[in-house]
Amino acid sequence: MWRLLEPVFRAGETFPHNPAITEVEARALWVEQSQSVMVAIGATGAVVGTYYLRPNSLALGAHVANAGYVVAEQCRGEGLGSRLCQHSLQAARRLGYRAMQFNLVVSTNTAGIRCWERNGFRTVGTVPGAFRHRQLGYVDALVMIQGLVEGPSA
Cα dihedral sign for 146, 100, 140, 58? Predict the structure, then answer.
């Protein structure tokens, strides 16, 4: 899975992790600190996508899920991100989460934003300059959410 995560983390464009993150640190963040991890395998047997699912907060906020997604560059634009998102929403419902929230959607990640919106997420806030993009400097970040149950989501 490191081969999939490494170029995305190193790019410093969509995840807040240190671009110099080690494989051991990435595994701890992506796998060991998550409640659930899904890996998508392509026709050749290579890992082509992944997501993690975990509580967005502690104790009294733990009923809201958080997730992160990575799709291999060669598979982008083929709907894999959307399928991973849909799978994670189903998994979150099965695990009893009442909503899913993305805390730091980088405003320049337009493909990701379109994907999340197509899958029912809405933007509830913008945090000006909250992400230090490796190439563009400080850019805005969005907070996006989707309710997973009828009635009040959180």
Answer: positive
